[in-house]
Design a protein that fits this description.
This protein has 2 domains: 18-249, Rossmann fold, CATH 3.40.50.10180; 251-415, glycerate kinase, domain 1, CATH 3.40.1480.10. It has 16 helices and 12 strands. The chain has helices at residues 2-15, 18-23, 41-51, 87-101, 117-120, 129-142, 146-153, 163-166, 200-209, 215-225, 251-264, 280-297, 325-337, 367-373, 378-383, 387-394; strands at residues 33-37, 57-60, 75-77, 108-113, 171-177, 243-249, 269-279, 305-314, 343-348, 360-363, 397-398, 409-415. Residues 305-409 form the MOFRL domain.
Length: 416
């Protein structure tokens, strides 16, 4: 079963490889410029370069130590930092702004956008890079959801929230891979070519809600609120008549591929939702209650059944341990189920969960007993947000390396 859990994840990743998805949506017309940004940038670019070998390009992937990048003839590959932007992110953002501003109205700009673009393509507006780095870190640790984070980021950026589309006169075809629950294109990489419904006032409300001071950021946002700075382009703006935004892959696509895998193994497989959000701890409680209901009453599904779910959990960090939202989810799931246990896997589809090098972890029916046998106190480690330490000690981490994919969380629970 352990092998099947891993195989279902790998199968889903293979079926939703960014190059495969991108290839199906490329235009007939040769673009004047290709810009690929995000964790799947190189994979998406690979498909575009096969079709348009001579087209100039700029690619901004996540920097990876020791990685050999593909041939960059006709273009530039500018690796940058994620999840916190750095000087390389600013260099990439400026390079893109300069390149798209030189295009002409009859040119076609092909944008290949995947999750992570918010940090990788950075153009601070009204604040310094150092302040933006601190702001990003604070938002990540606050428990703010992705919509809230992006409401702030869009209003301190010259690229996000439709501003990239406003920076060029060219026609735009933007292909998006979604890493956000609900597949809202305005949220993916902070929607550089998508109308923005959030406002300076919304951004200030987020800072207030999570008690984030940042006086320089607040001063900039208040300038915008007072009409001294232009708002991000809104729905109905004429500039979007020359923009086509197209969703080409999502968390639902990933879950459906996994569902097909389990059905081929003879299991009934149910997708609960691709839109789960909230604290990983509470999502784990919900899933544990569902498992117990299935086992006790056969409701809402009779076992055996495989439960699949996605979305994007969050973790409000209070301890000093290591982990990620998927490891945290799985550890709490095991805690709530106790000795009953089950087979389960939770992982981030990009291969990197939180501040670790693991994609996620695996829970086995005997994990609780093995942990006690080793003298591990699961609850104490959870209170320190040290799910990674727990699974490392149990030898139950799932380590894949970066997958070149980014379609959000992947959870599978096998209820025998």
């Amino acid at each position: 079963m352990r092998k099947q859990l891993v195989a279902s994840f790998q199968h889903a990743l293979a079926q939703t490889h960014p190059a495969h998805l991108t290839q199906q949506h490329l235009p007939e017309e040769t673009p004047a410029l290709i810009v690929a940004v995000g964790k799947a940038a190189i994979s998406m670019l690979e498909a575009a370069r096969q079709r348009f070998a001579q087209a100039p390009f700029i690619a901004v992937p996540k920097a990876e130590t020791g990685r050999a990048w593909p041939d960059a003839s006709h273009g530039r590959i500018l690796p940058a930092s994620h999840p916190v932007p750095d000087e390389r992110s600013v260099e990439a953002g400026q390079a893109i702004l300069q390149a798209v501003s030189r295009l002409k109205p009859d040119d076609l700009l092909l944008l290949l956008i995947s999750g992570g673009g918010s940090a990788l393509m950075c153009a601070p507006w009204g604040i310094s890079l150092a302040i933006k780095q601190d702001l990003t870190q604070a938002l990540l640790r606050s428990g703010a959801d992705i919509q809230e984070m992006n409401a702030v980021r869009k209003h301190v950026s010259a690229l996000k929230g439709g501003r990239l589309a406003a920076a060029t006169p060219a026609r735009i075809l933007a292909l998006y891979l979604s890493d956000v629950p609900g597949d809202d294109l305005s949220v993916i990489a902070s929607g550089p070519t998508v109308p923005d419904e959030s406002t300076f006032a919304d951004a200030l409300e987020v800072l207030d809600k999570y008690r984030l001071e940042f006086p320089e950021v607040r001063a900039h946002l208040r300038q915008g609120l007072g009409g001294e700075l232009p708002e991000s382009p809104k729905p109905g703006d004429a500039l979007f008549t020359r923009v086509e935004n197209r969703l080409i892959g999502s968390n639902q696509t990933l879950l459906e591929a996994a569902q097909n895998y389990w059905q081929a193994q003879g299991y009934r497989a149910v997708i609960l939702s691709d839109r789960f959000q909230g604290e990983a701890r509470e999502l784990a409680r919900f899933h544990a209650n569902l498992v117990q209901s299935i086992r006790t009453h056969g409701q809402p599904f009779r076992p055996p059944v495989v439960l699949l779910s996605g979305g994007e959990a969050g973790v409000t960090v209070r301890g000093s341990g290591r982990g990620g939202r998927n490891q945290e989810f799985l550890a709490w799931l095991g805690f709530y189920l106790g000795q009953a246990g089950l087979w389960a896997l939770a992982a981030d589809s990009d291969g990197i969960d939180g501040n670790t090098q693991a994609a996620g972890a695996i829970w086995q029916p005997d994990t609780w007993q093995r942990a006690r046998g080793q003298g591990l106190d699961l609850k104490a480690q959870l209170q320190q947000n040290d799910s990674h330490g727990f699974f490392a000690a149990m030898n139950d981490l799932l380590v894949t390396g970066e997958t070149a994919n980014n379609l959000n969380d992947f959870r599978v629970l096998v209820v025998e």
